[in-house]
Amino acid sequence: MQPNIKTGITFGIIGGLLTFLFGGWSVAVIGCFMGIGLGLGFGGRIEKSTPFNMAKEASKPGFTAAGVLLIVSLIQNFVIQGLIGKSQAELNTFIFSNLIAFLGSAGLTCLVVSFGGYDKKKEQTYKLALLAAVVIAFPFVDNFTELRWTAQIIFALIFVILGLGLNIVVGYAGLLDLGYAAFFAIGAYTTGILSSPVHNTEWNFWLVIWIAAAMAGLWGLMLGAPTLPLRGDYLAIVTLGFGEIVPVLFKNLIDVTIKEPLTCWILPLFRIQTTCITFFEHADLTLGEKGISPIGRPYLPIIGEFESSKPITWYFLIVALILLSVFIINRLRDSRLGRAWMAIREDELAAAQMGIDPVKTKLAAFAMGAMFSGFAGAFYAAYIRGIFPSVFDFSASIIILCVVILGGIGNINGVIVGGLVLMTADRLFLPALKDFLTALLTHTVLPSISNPAVQAAVSANANPILYRFLLFGLTLVIMMAVRPEGLIPNAQVRAELHANEEKKG
Amino acid sequence: MLELKDVHTYYGNIHALKGISITVKDGEIVTLIGSNGAGKSTTLRTIQGLNRPRSGTVTLDGVSLEKMEAHKIAEFGVAQSPEGRMIFPRMTVMENLEMGAYVRKDLTSYKDDLEHVFSLFPRLKERINQKGGTLSGGEQQMLAMGRAMMAKPKILLLDEPSMGLAPLLVELIFDIIKKLNEEGTTILLVEQNALMALSIAHRGYVLQTGEIVLADDAKKLMKNEDVQKTYLGVE
Questions:
Q1: Nearest chain B residue to A337, by CA
Q2: Within a domain: B83
Q3: Phi, psi at residue B136, to the nearest 5°?
Q4: Which of A3, A171, A359, A385 is the most buried (most CB within 10 A)?
């Protein structure tokens, strides 16, 4: 079989599996995404020629994938839906959505590949334009088709920002940080404390988000200063410690008294009568395990206050934050500081001999990385409308690290893709799989089991969300074995990992 | 002028340098020869602030270096082509050279200096976009020297530039060292290849188990019987 056709079938099957779980209109959206993905993945493999010829070449895998998707969609609607006890889609809707899926996936594959036929600059522009169109159109399409994915995609995008921030620390400066969620927590709690009616401090979100970022950055400096002279494993262990301490700290900030030391303690020592200035007395800053809720939300003229029922506004806010982050991080990477980070990552001793101050440079990476998680924290707090200490535990740090490693250490595009893939799998795919399995079992296997205890056990354990971390771990193990450099690798990391292999072609 | 006065350096309890005094005047090539473990590299590490002297002083142009941090010393004008080269393996040749110029505040002559490095090492220009780690040993040595030159240092420390290189390449490297010196760079050269080192140096020091046993003009050292027996292999 031709490799082109094989790639087409693989993509068609992946798209088909997703369609299987979601059903309905999802086939159209998945089809379009599949087409773009196939085009991007496939484009590099086609010999460069005129755009038309390249598109013609791409039509083979494009239509194969579209065909596979259509077959799966037919089976899903006419066989599976009945099996899991759901009604089939309306015929009109079904035909229309599948038509979009078929033409959209094949057409987009050809379109994306044909961009390769233009010169580099034009190709970039066209790809960016298509990407912008997809990003802007997505929430509206989602709204129209009633898939309700936007709310979950927003979570994925929060992790994209966190990944981008951690990428500065781990990817650029080469410092393994196992407690990154601590800074996420600091950003979120700063927002919670400053803009919650619980504290009668309803500051404006647009101000608080900057304060949150600054606070996280400041804490990055404070935590980094004593620890960054350490190297490698030792640093990782210390960051692990901080990651554990910070959530516990927030859990226990429930009875805080802050007095001004000069008037309260020092002057009385010399028997000088003053009135003691007290900032807080027995203040419950974080409300412990209960968490802070509600938290103020952003407000914009025309749009009004952001509401949970309208995820589109939140979606565009986080997209804007990501664009800002990508812009800043790109500029940082190409700056003098960015070069210093890379030199430190390569060889700290040699870097020092080039005149780079290792501690200052590492501290800058730590603080910058922390700052971006401050942004993410502020957004998260406002979006969820409440923050709870358990969210920021060790597993959060590990998931963010997974995003960076899975996507490709040191590569911005890689981290964005990694965040989207990992978190949509976690937030969309797993719950859908759970619903699907439950429905399937209740209509097929469960009625045939006579023993009620076994029946209960089967239905309780057929819940993939329970195996979330197992699946995370499995994904990482497979990735490290098959593609250790990540989905979209950084050129330097790839060079290192594949230094001993012969170049093909 | 670089001056070491009665420098004692330890690795834990091991007394590695037992009171070393060296001067390198501006415009000189001074070489430090000796067998393995004599303390040659330790002397360079002490100058650079990677090891701290327990007693004694290290000064460059009258400024004391012995308590300065390593990166500050580099900034002050000490550049080196270290033993084992220590180039950045995953950066390109160009990026490595750029890192060399990191300490410079005045970049007006940056382009000319780059051209100058490429004129001395045309091989580097051919490999400009190649990753440092994929270069051959000789090319890495050239890169390490070129990178040190990009810093425009007050003094250039060269640690075993001939190590592991083919004889033809060794000659080329030493020609370039001589040329660099003629252009006004002060050089402290540490070498096991005593013959080559003494042939281009103005003065030389012979180091033996952490002590300086001989110090003289390079030409006189070459004629010294002990040196001939021990380091030049003359029967």
A1: B102
A2: no
A3: -75, 170
A4: A171
* Maximum alpha-carbon separation in chain B: 53
Q: What is the tens place of the pLDDT at every residue in B67-116?
A: 899 999 998 999 988 877 788 988 899 999 999 998 888 778 888 889 99
Query: Predicted confidence band at A415 (pLDDT cuts at 50, 70, 90)?
Result: very high
Quote the tokens at residue A316: 């565009």
| Statement to judge: residues A107 and A216 lie in one domain | no
Which of B129, B152, B175 is the C-terminal boundary of a domain? B152
Distance CA A266, CA A243 (A): 35
Tell me the pLDDT tens digit for each residue of B139-167: 899 999 999 999 889 999 999 888 888 88
For residue A261, say if its preceding peptide bond is cis, omega within 30 degrees of 0.
no
Select from B120, B152, B184 the last residue of a domain: B152
Range of the domain at B52: 2-77+153-230
Task: Measure A349 CA to nearest chain B CA, in Å.
Answer: 9
Q: What are the tens digits of pLDDT across the range A67-77?
A: 888 888 888 88
- For residue A195, how many other CB atoms are within 10 A of its CB? 27
**Domain residues for A275?**
153-387
Nearest partner of A343 among B89, B104, B151, judged by Cα: B89
Partners of residue B69 in chain A, C-beta under 8 Å: 357
| Minimal C-alpha gap between B41 and chain A (Å) | 15
Phi, psi (rounded to 5 degrees) for B222: -65, -30
Please answer yes or no on whether A355 and B102 come within 8 Å at the CB atom.
yes
To the nearest whole Å, the CA of A497 is away from the closest chain B CA by 11
Q: Give the C-alpha separation, A341 to A344, whole Å.
A: 5
How many Cα atoms are found within 13 Å in the side-chain-facing hemisphere of A499? 11
Helix extents (H) in A176-335: 181-194, 205-227, 232-252, 261, 267-269, 311-333
Instruction: Identify the burial level of A350 via C-beta atoms within 10 angstroms of its C-beta, where 0-12 means exposed, 13-18 middle and 19 or more buried.
Output: buried
Q: Which residues of A215-224 are buried (b: 16+ CB within 10 A; e: fewer)?
A: bbbebbeebb
Phi, psi of A215 (to 5 degrees): -60, -45
B91/A336 touch (CB, cutoff 8 Å), yes or no: no
Strands A278-283 and A256-259: antiparallel
Q: What angle do CA A149, A154, A157 make, to 5 degrees?
A: 125
